[in-house]
Specification:
mainly beta; globular; eleven-stranded antiparallel beta sheet; 12% helix; single chain
């Protein structure tokens, strides 16, 4: 399941500059593992990302989404911890994606369909569950740029949950010295979706009603959320 690319939309291609340089690790000459300064720095970065996510109360931003076919869609992101997020797509896109703390919903008002997944079964679980131990499930991906931290999160016991690569910029004014730049999500089938954020704002008040939605299914009229 690709979270944000269930079908192409009405936008043209965009080259999204989220490239990562993977570090090559030479084979060990002995069976003895010696901690290195690089390893210690990676652990510090993992801890900083964990601290940053746990420090988020609310976040608002404009987002730009690029799916596996190169289609680009934009909109407004509202995020309130724990577990609430809303992707409000710009018109005329009829999609709405909402998480209410337990489940993630994709609502298509054009075809009157709703899809639902438990948050923990989605790559976004790494962002929406601040209790998740990223030092257990995450690893640092070298970018070649000391100003950027990229962390890959996957649950090896549940590959069907997919993978998310979160990208942070170092920012002295941000929680734990970081600012969320965006992420790349891949589902179990390898479908890839990129999200880039702009105009990020932390701590703005967001009403709980922002994570309710009107059910478009004819049999559910009058029972909207």
């Amino acid at each position: 399941m690709t979270l944000f690319s269930h079908r192409p939309r009405r936008s043209g291609p965009l080259a999204l500059a989220l490239s990562f340089s993977l570090a090559l690790v030479p084979g060990m000459a002995t069976l003895v593992t010696v901690p290195t300064a690089a390893h210690a720095a990676e652990q510090d970065d993992l801890a900083a990302v964990q601290q940053h996510i746990r420090a988020i109360t609310t976040l608002t931003a404009d987002f730009s989404q690029t799916d596996r076919s190169g289609q680009v869609q934009g909109g407004k992101l509202l995020w309130k911890q724990p577990g609430n997020i809303r992707f409000q797509y710009d018109q005329p896109n009829p999609l709405l994606i909402v998480a209410d703390g337990k489940s993630l919903y994709m609502i298509d008002y054009e075809v009157r369909q709703v899809q639902r997944w438990p948050i923990r079964n989605s790559p976004l679980g790494a962002l929406l569950d601040p209790t998740r131990d990223l030092t257990r499930y995450g690893k640092i991906i070298q970018t070649g740029d000391p100003r950027i931290i990229s962390i890959e999160v996957r649950d090896a016991a549940h590959p069907e949950y997919g993978v998310i690569n979160m990208v942070f910029q170092r920012d002295a004014e941000g929680a734990a010295g970081l600012k969320l730049y965006g992420w790349v999500a891949r589902d179990a089938q390898g479908n890839r979706t990129s999200i880039r954020l702009a105009n990020v704002r932390y701590g703005a008040p967001i009403a709980d009603s922002a994570f309710r939605w009107k059910d478009p299914r004819p049999t559910q009229r009058g029972a909207g959320r």
